[in-house]
Design a protein that fits this description.
Number of helices: 2
Radius of gyration: 12 Å
Oligomer: single chain
Shape: flat
Structural class: mainly alpha
Number of domains: 1
Number of strands: 0
Helix content: 55-70%
Largest sheet: none
């Protein structure tokens, strides 16, 4: 079962969240670990932040 929750972020919070997740993704890549789940979440957060700040 999937649950969705809406949260509003400021531009600063969006940037902080995206940058932090990207750093985590880079760490996974450096250790040759899978990044599919992080990629999907990062994509969703990025799209949500860009759509709500325009």
């Amino acid at each position: 079962m999937s649950r969705k929750t809406k949260i509003k972020f400021t531009d600063f919070e969006c940037n902080l969240l995206i940058n932090g997740m990207n750093e985590f993704r880079n760490m996974l890549l450096a250790e040759n670990l899978p990044t599919e789940d992080v990629d999907e979440l990062l994509r969703d957060v990025f799209l949500s932040c860009t759509l709500t700040t325009e």
